[in-house]
Design brief:
Length: 336
Amino acid sequence: MFKFGLGQDVGIDLGTATVIVYVKGKGIVLREPSVVAVDNNTGDVLAVGGEARRMLGRTPGNIIATRPLREGVISDYTVTEKMLKYFIGKVCGKSLFAPNIMICIPSQVTEVEKKAVIDAAMQAGARKVYLIEEPIAAAIGAGIDIAKPCGNMVVDIGGGTTDIAVISLGGSVVSSSLKVAGDKFDEAIIKYVKRRYNIAIGERTAEDLKVNIGCVYPKIQDSEMDVRGRDLTSGLPKTVTIHSSEMLEALIEPAMMIVDSVHGVLERTPPELAADISDKGIYMTGGGCLVDGLDKLLQEKTGINVMIAQDTVSCVALGTGKALDNLDALDGKSRK
């Protein structure tokens, strides 16, 4: 257990798929799936994180393994609060002092959604709550100096949302938040396998397909993977072999929606900043950008150089952590 004293600062990347916790002075101390298993009869939390993820699609009637965040926002307030409480407790141990917490949120959330995040964190034991927009946190985490008066474009593809922003002088000039990201890729794979092979597969199998052979740009060498699912005609388990060329067919539609959204942000970008982006390129962050060929597709469609940031999955959490060093500047702006 991690112990810390007065006024310790904690940064949380409250993701749809993963929660990553950064503690000032220690770095990233926790990385767990944002899944909670709840007993339906009593309302008690039975498991959180990795343990709960293993239960997805495998629970009896009285236990529900659920993701309390959908498309970047809180869909189940009570379960989110319990999840935050569990993670904060795991990181803080038996600390006497409540921590300051900075949480990142998608760029286009409503005031009601912001309030839900703040309230959940306060109920979970935070002393003060700060909010930071995901693309700004991602840019800081990717090592971009956002304070300068020049344009930087960040495309942060998470589990539930894709956040696109042009950042200059520490703030986003033009931004867009799209509810198409890692989860939509999984859904597209489930639909494709059902349509093509008449087989039902679960979320975890779809994610394995995406990670292992998924692509959105033609591969030089076709790879394949065996998957098991339920035959919808006979109702019996069945194994089929799926190729990466089929994954390209399944994933190209959601990938093009992201590309079109990037195009839309570029169209609204002031000319001076657009020139900066043309020189510097587009930075991609978040776990969703690791789908094979997404950077090549975006580069081909925009004609701008595309770079994938180092440690893409942790970029937002690292940026949230680094932003904790500048709490004084944020104090007036984004505090509860």
